Amino acid sequence: MAGSKLFPILIAAVAVGAVVTGCGPAPAARQTADVAYAGSLQLVNSKYIHPAFTKATGSNYRGRGGGSLGLANQIKAGEIHPNVFESVGNAPIEGLEPRYTTWSVGFAATPLVLAYSPQSPYASRLKAIADGQKPLVDLFALMEQPGFHLGRTNPETDPQGQAFIIMLKLAAEKYRLPAGTVDKIIGTVNNPKQIFAETALESRLEAGQLDACSAFLSQAVQRKLAYIKLPDDINQGNPELAASYASQSVTLKNGKVVKGSPLVLYVTTIGGTPDQRAGVSFVKYLLSPAGLKTYQDQGYTLLPKKEVKGDVNAIPADIKSELP
Predict the structure, then answer these.
(1) According to the model, what pLDDT value does residue 202 have?
(2) How many domains, in total, are found in the chain?
(3) Residues 291 and 184 both lie in one domain
């Protein structure tokens, strides 16, 4: 008898619990910072920025790397829809204006170096140059040897690929290299035997498939690669030498002439894409003292003052708070 009275009470209690649970607010979905970045930023973003950003903000993170110009073209074509874009140089971002963004912030420089393989038959000579036992000018004669396997990125899609050729031209002028030296080193601007995806270039070097390759100092530091440091007047890492870098250029297949410019990292948000709040949050974190310190620790040279391009008034307030 007692059991029959208790049974309806239990059912009522369960029903009330179900109603209370059902009426409660659903947990808010976590937004995702979807970041398209220059391939050279793959390690610093995935290994360091990603976990720190997620811990600090509670937002999710998704990233993809590639040549900055190539990524910009994919955004314009509607092939990818990131809410953040990090580029080497501001030109790829300018190509997205005004439809996708109208502003960008430069925050760090990343000079060129020449990374080399300790397994290379030329390793002892490359190390002698790196250590200063042999003059840097010897490097260019070495790279033009027919058996020297050089790797670089695609100048049609990647600023590093453009900057490497411009570096050679700056060096040819500085060191008064013999006529035709640059052509002997690269073959042609788009030589398929030398061009590889930026995200795979260092892996090929580490596997011993290349004797040397173009790299940013930050990449060499992060991956602990052997490398030859290049002077400021050819490495394109010093914003104060912008006019000097612009004295040399590279001509692309479509006839466009690209002048040398400082290799500075720029970031912006991309409008009209999902999870805008998370995109803004990511850029705010990136430009915060914690984010900048991470980049500095990974081999980037922070600019003395963040460089704002475009419409300052269009920059979201949360990001503005991290600007001088």
Answers:
(1) 87
(2) 2
(3) no
Residue 72 and residue 159 in one domain: no
Reported as a single tens digit per residue, the pLDDT across 272-281 is 999 999 999 9
CATH of the domain at 69: 3.40.190.10
Q: What are the backbone angles phi and psi of residue 157, rounded to the nearest 5°?
A: -125, -10
Which residue, 105, 164, 91, is CA-closest to 284?
105
**DSSP letters of 34-74?**
EEEEEGGGHHIIIIIIHHHHHHHH--EEEEEEE-HHHHHHH
Is 121 inside any structural domain? yes
Cα-based angle 309, 314, 320 (whole degrees, multiple of 5):
75
- Choosing from 207, 242, 259, the residue where a domain stops is 259
Over 80: is that where the pLDDT of 10 sits? no
H-helix or E-strand spanning residue 283 = helix 276-286
Of the three residues 224, 242, 259, the one that is the final residue of a domain is 259
SS3 80: coil
At 111-167, the pLDDT tens digits run: 999 999 999 999 999 999 999 999 999 999 999 999 999 999 999 999 999 999 999
Residue 8 CB-density burial (10 A; 0-12 exposed, 13-18 middle, 19+ buried): exposed
Structure tokens at 323: 């600007």
Who has greater pLDDT, 84 or 202? Answer: 84
Question: For residue 222, is pLDDT > 80?
Answer: yes
List C-alpha distances in Å: 258 to 27, 127, 155, 232, 240. 50, 32, 10, 20, 19
